[in-house]
Design brief:
The complex is a heterodimer.
Chain A: E1 19-24, E2 30-35, H1 39-64, H2 70-77, H3 82-89, H4 93-99, H5 102-106, H6 110-120, H7 124-129
Antiparallel strand pairs in A: 1-2
Helix pairs in contact in A: 1-2
Chain B: H1 13-21, H2 23-26, H3 32-38, E1 42-52, E2 55-61, H4 66-74, E3 79-82, H5 87-99, E4 104-108, E5 127-135, E6 138-142, E7 150-153, H6 154-161, E8 173-176, H7 184-203, H8 211-229, H9 231-246, H10 256-269, H11 275-300, H12 307-332
Antiparallel strand pairs in B: 1-2, 3-8, 4-5, 4-8, 5-6, 6-7
Helix pairs in contact in B: 1-3, 1-4, 3-4, 3-10, 7-12, 8-9, 8-12, 9-11, 10-11, 11-12
Chain lengths: ~140, ~325
């Protein structure tokens, strides 16, 4: 890549920091050049987020339909999976899978709910009611 | 408390941290490209069995941690590294390092990294930054991919040092134990061994998931994605590949440009070995990766998406595999002058 071809399409990262790229100058010598983003990367990230939004919406619907507990929604909302949630809470994966069932979730102790809420960085009440506050 | 440390922005977190931690000892000689090349940073791996954000794991660089370790080992610099079961002990140890005047590298997860924009926060746990001081409850943080430095309070830092999920850092901390002087002769030897290691990684790792054969194999697989995965999933996979290749901290072209810069710098230490000429092959390869990324973007934007387009996508990788194979075969055959 030539130095003057380093793309400057403003990304959400570009608003906070420019990125270092390595590119060649007119003599073919490598130099560093700052880039504020590249359209190809921005749309790649948008594609990933489009999928995440879909997964969150599907999870929300499942909870509303009584097919899953709010845990599923917050797992998707926090881009987690059962393994990551197990890591943050110290609760076994097979237990988390049981807690994904609405009837099991309803009987969870306050202590367990608190652990989940902490992992999701939310309040217990919001966990139960599937309420989201933008952060 | 502040340590004599200067923040320098880099393209890639780990080679940036390595270069910055060794800056004083090397008198600024260990630049980011040198750290990347001596650490044998260039790689390719496609591991569909490991899922990252619901897509396949694709890597354009070597395993996390290897660049720092290899670079220090080749330059004969003793390294201290620790992981912790307890958050309290991890903080006590960090404070002790700072008190004794050591800036330290920390492995962190980016999901709760406060200065990253939300769109970039995934559960990715192999990010690296330097802590170089403490002011009350605030730690002074030098993240090599950022233009400036940042401040994190003890809770924020603990959270990212103890992020969970794949490659969880467990408070991983590392730093050069002493500031030994690094001689030009050591650098020459380190460059040779870094190239040798990278030649092995790209040409000789058994199996078809990594190195040149990994690129070739992925190219062949991509041609089947449309039929096998369906168009929507294929789009996600291609977007994932482009992000791993170009997103924060690759220097562009899936690290191929940094490697090109490394060979140019290496040529100054080891003239007469044509390294500057070989550098241009990696520039070509990086350009090809970016051309492929533009094509991939056409598919995930939905502008194109026929089987023919997937064939073209796969062919790009086959072409790249050939370019990089010949480049590494050439590096392998060098009779050092």
């Amino acid at each position: 890549m030539k130095k003057d071809e380093v793309p400057q399409d403003l990304s959400s990262l570009g608003k906070i920091t420019k990125e270092v790229c390595y590119a060649t100058d007119s003599n073919g010598k490598y130099v560093t050049e700052l880039s504020s983003g590249w359209d190809v990367k921005i749309t790649a990230l948008d594609t990933a987020w489009g999928d995440i939004e879909k997964r969150i919406a599907a999870a929300k619907q499942q909870v509303r339909d009584g097919k899953a507990s709010p845990l599923l929604f917050f797992i998707e909302y926090r881009l987690m999976d059962v393994a990551i949630l197990a890591g943050y809470t110290g609760i076994w994966k097979w237990q988390i899978k049981r807690h994904l069932k609405p009837e099991v979730f309803k009987k969870l102790s306050d202590k367990k709910l608190q652990k989940y809420a902490e992992a999701f960085n939310i309040k217990v009440e919001d966990l139960k009611t599937m309420t989201v506050h933008e952060d | 408390m502040k340590i004599d440390f200067e923040h320098r922005q880099a393209a890639h977190c780990e080679s940036g941290v390595t270069s910055n931690l060794l800056w004083n000892a090397s008198g600024g000689k260990i630049t980011e490209p040198l750290a990347f090349g001596i650490g044998a940073g260039l790689f390719f791996a496609y591991i569909p069995l490991i899922k990252i954000n619901n897509g396949p794991a694709i890597a354009f660089r070597t395993m996390p941690g290897h660049i720092f370790s290899r670079t220090c080992k080749s330059l004969n610099i003793p390294v201290e590294r620790k992981k912790f079961g307890s958050k309290e002990k991890a903080q006590v140890y960090l404070d002790m390092c700072l008190e004794t005047g050591h800036a330290v590298g920390c492995q962190v997860g980016v999901y709760y990294l406060p200065y990253f924009p939300k769109e970039y926060r995934f559960h990715f746990n192999a990010h690296n930054l330097i802590v170089y001081g403490k002011d009350g409850d605030n730690y002074l943080v030098s993240d090599p991919i950022m233009e400036g430095t940042n401040v994190m309070d003890s809770y924020q830092l603990e959270r990212v040092r103890f992020a969970k999920g794949a490659l969880s850092p467990k408070g991983h901390i590392y730093y050069p134990k002493e500031n030994k002087e690094i001689t030009d002769d050591q650098i020459r030897q380190a460059i040779k061994s870094g190239i040798k290691k990278n030649v092995y990684n790209m040409l000789s790792i058994p199996g078809s998931f990594a190195g040149i054969s990994g690129i070739r194999n992925t190219g062949k697989k991509i041609k089947n994605w449309r039929d096998k995965l369906g168009i929507e999933k294929s789009k996600l996979y291609l977007a994932q590949m482009v992000r791993m290749q170009e997103e924060i901290g690759t220097g562009g072209g899936g690290f191929r440009y940094i490697y090109g810069a490394f060979l140019q710098e290496a040529d100054v230490y080891l003239p007469g070995n044509q390294l500057a000429v070989y550098s241009s092959i990696f520039t070509k390869s990086g350009d090809l990766w970016r051309t492929a990324a533009v094509h991939a973007a056409g598919i995930y934007k939905g502008r194109i998406g026929s089987q023919e387009d997937f064939n073209t996508m796969g062919d790009y990788l086959l072409e790249i595999a050939e370019v990089e194979r010949s480049a590494f075969e050439t590096l392998k055959k060098i009779k050092w002058q």
